[in-house]
Amino acid sequence: MGNNKAHADQKYIEALLNNDSIVIKEIYEKFAPKVVGYIKKNSGDESKAQDIIQETLITIYKQAKEKELMLTCPFDAYFFLLCKRKWLNELKKNTTKEVTINEEVVSINDESVQYADETVVFEARNKLFTEVFDQLGKACKELLKATFTIKSMEEVASKLGQSYGYVRKKKSLCIGQLTKMVQSAPKYNKIKNLL
Amino acid sequence: MTPEEKYELFERKISEELSNKEEETLSQIIKEDKAIAEEFRIYKEWSSYLDANLNLEQEQSDLEQNLKKVGDSFFEKKQAKKETKVIKIPSWAYAVAASVAIVLGVYTFTKSDPAYNDFASIPELSITERGSEDEISKKAEASFNSENYEEAEKYLLELLNNDNSNSEYLFYLGITLVEQDKHEKASEIFEKLRQGTSVYKYKAIWFEALNQLKQKNIGRCTELLKSLPQEAEDYQQAQKLLKKL
Predict the structure, then answer these.
(1) Which is nearest to A122 in space by CA: B55, B144, B48?
(2) How much is the pLDDT for B102?
(3) How much is the CA Rg of chain A, to the nearest whole Å?
(4) Per-residue confidence at B107, pLDDT binned at 50, 70, 90?
(5) Which of A32, B54, B94, B229 is the most buried (most CB within 10 A)?
(6) For position B84, what pLDDT does the model report?
(7) Does residue A162 sit in helix, strand or coil?
(8) What is the radius of gyration, based on Cα positions, of chain B?
(9) How far is CA A177 from CA A103, A167, A183, B3, B7, in A?
(10) Residue A2 pLDDT exceeds 50
(11) How many other CB atoms sit within 10 Å of the CB of residue A71?
């Protein structure tokens, strides 16, 4: 996105990847207060804010891990936007009564919005894939777990007492099945064009 | 092409096992058939998802636990701050406070040589994971956080025996050494971190500068402070110190 130089705040993404307590503490100290303030103003409390912050950080971590997320904008606005959207979704899910949203003016540049959008799509895709994977048959699940955790297909083959060619074929059929299942999921149409 | 053949072709493409000719065939098909192109896209997404998620369980749960721990302590601290009571001060006390402030101001003004202790804020060591049985980590943490640096050095060295490139252990070991005035050893460690790429890279420069300050090597200290880039966490502190030197 834009130029390819990582922003100095990339260190927060790295900290999540390395589970670096010192910098993670810094994330809370620097960025949590604004989120807490927002959630408290909008029918939430501190414990809700803590959950939202934790979930958001896990999503960012997952995206960084799988898609090598590289920030070229400040972490602040990106993180705040994500927490805010997550909280608004939460409110919509759980409240029957009317919710008043106290919007506050935050200066947010386009790049942060773009990054936040990508993360939101990533999260939706992950949620859908997790649900679909759960519905997969036991044999396929086990085979995929073996092939993706043991990396070497030869090793998997010998473990299962099968030939390399057979295991690869089975693996491709299982992923093929997942592909079909996703395509027929109603939710898929919502995010399909964004992936 | 049967579905079996199609998926196997996808799989072999992703694991980079296709011959040139097969590559050509596949890109031709993808170009011509939108439905297959779409399927291939999702297939690839699955492959990347599975690769990340089936391998992530342990790592992710470690991170979750750590976030919970950091979050708990952050939110508790916040709570504690709020509960501090405001004590009403009689108005005459303001006058006393003001004169004390003036006296203190004059005192600190005349005593303007910056010292190590004015600038070194020692971070807390937090390396044990919840539910972990690791005794050495616990001891390292307890001794470091209670400022028993001699003991902490011992335990950190032990931890480094099993994990000799762990930059977190190295960084904290460096601090225990500065605190015990083992300046040269500390310099070696900070230099190693400075040349690395870990998150402690800049922290190491800052603490090495403090290490030099403690030895009153003002020239070297200044040099190090100037080398600290703006994005470093301690940049502001470094500028403050530079002004005083």
Answers:
(1) B48
(2) 67
(3) 20
(4) low
(5) A32
(6) 53
(7) coil
(8) 28
(9) 44, 15, 10, 10, 9
(10) no
(11) 22
> Does residue B81 surpass a pLDDT of 70?
no
What value does the mean pLDDT take over residues B171-181?
A: 92
Q: Are B172 and B207 in contact (CB under 8 A)?
A: no
Say if CB B50 and CB A144 are below 8 A apart: yes
Which tens digit of pLDDT belongs to each residue from B188-231?
999 988 888 777 888 999 999 999 999 988 889 999 999 888 88
Cα–Cα distance list, A88 to A42, A83, A127 (Å) = 9, 9, 18
CB A101 within 8 A of CB A40: no
Asked if A61's CB is within 8 angstroms of B71's CB, the reply is no
Q: In the numeric block, which tokens belong to residue A26? A: 């810094």
Please judge whether B71 and A21 are an interchain contact, meaning their C-beta atoms are less than 8 angstroms apart.
Answer: no
Distance, in Å, from the CA atom of B60 to the CA atom of A101, rounded to the nearest integer, reads 33
Domain with CATH 1.25.40.10 in chain B: 116-244
The fold of B116-244 is: 1.25.40
Place of tokens 């701050």: B81
In terms of Cα–Cα distance, which of B240, B69, B192, B46 is closest to A147?
Answer: B46
Count contacts between A and B (CB, < 8 Å). Answer: 125
Question: Cβ-count burial of B38 within 10 angstroms (0-12 exposed, 13-18 middle, 19+ buried)?
Answer: middle
Flag whether pLDDT at B111 surpasses 50: no
Name the pLDDT band for A108 (thresholds 50, 70, 90).
low
Partners of residue A129 in chain B, C-beta under 8 Å = 45-46, 49, 53
| B79: chain A residues, CB-CB within 8 Å | 46
Structure tokens, B119? 């600038």
Q: Determine whether the interchain pair B49/A57 forms a contact, defined as Cβ–Cβ distance below 8 Å.
A: no
Interface of A with B in 123-142 (CB under 8 A): 125-126, 129-130, 133
